[in-house]
Amino acid sequence: MHDHDQHAAHDHGHEPASSLPHHVPGAGHNRLKAAAQWQVPHRPEGAVPPPPAERDLDLVETSFVEGFGRAPDPTSFLRLAKVPFVGVDGAGRRLHLLRVEMENLTDVGAVSPLLDGEGMRYDPLPARMVSQRSRLAFVYHDGQSLARLGFSEARALVDQSAPSHFAMTPEG
Questions:
Q1: CB neighbourhood size of 154 (10 A)
Q2: Using the 8-state DSSP alphabet, how is residue 77 labeled?
Q3: How confident is the model at residue 165 (pLDDT cuts 50, 70, 90)?
Q4: How far apart are CA 68 and CA 81, in angstroms?
Q5: CB of 86 within 8 A of CB of 161?
Q6: 22-25, long-range: CB within 8 Å, 24+ apart, which pairs?
Q7: Residue 96 half-sphere exposure, CB side, CA atoms within 13 Å?
Q8: For the chain, how far is it from start to end, CA to CA, in angstroms?
Q9: Greatest Cα pair distance in the chain
Q10: Is the pTM of this model over 0.70?
Q11: At a CB cut-off of 8 Å and minimum separation 6, what does 167 contact?
Q12: 49 DSSP assignment
């Protein structure tokens, strides 16, 4: 008898386990539950919550990654995402957007140290433990070097992307 079969002692508001086949994935107490994205993690007392526009920024970033590569007009897509082409950071550096980098990563193995500290153990991961994620970076140039910014960092730049002009000097 499984612990799950003893529902008489406690009621969870669902059908008794005996009516659920044991081979059904996701049934009963052990089913995977999706994270509720609207929940706010616990903050220290007195901490100010993020402004409403920055809530769920992780979901906005995920949507950016999913849509940017298929966008017929990447320039407009960047504007809709509020990523400036020319921006000023907190240190006053004027940054010019050169490239958007997106990278897909899949972890298929794990390394762990041996108990004696004399080596490492490698194990391929079973399919249910394989993880996939994407990395996103905005590559800006400040006139001297490249700066790689994350999604929230790029959106935090003071946008100075308005059309501009500059004088051409004749070669002489």
A1: 25
A2: H
A3: low
A4: 10
A5: yes
A6: none
A7: 7
A8: 93
A9: 94
A10: no
A11: none
A12: P
Structure tokens at 70: 């298929």
Beta-ladder partners of 135: 103
**Of the given ranges (18-27, 32-41, 42-51), which has the lowest mean pLDDT?**
18-27
Taking CA atoms, 73 is separated from 7, 76, 84, 96, 144, in Å, by: 57, 6, 15, 19, 29
Beta bridge partners of 88: 94, 158
Lookup: tokens for 65 = 């990654």
Letter for the amino acid at 163? P
| Rg of the chain over all Cα atoms, to the nearest angstrom | 25
Outline where 69-127 has alpha helix (H): 74-80
> Where do we find the tokens 């080596």?
119
Structure tokens at 69: 């590569």
| Contact call for residues 63 and 71 (beta carbons, < 8 A) | no
**Residue 133's pLDDT band (cuts 50, 70, 90):** confident
Contact 38, 70 (CB under 8 A): no
8 Å CB contact between 87 and 155 = no
What letter represents residue 39's amino acid?
Answer: Q
Cα–Cα distances (Å) from 145 to 84, 93, 142, in that order, read 18, 11, 6
Tokens encoding 140: 């800006």
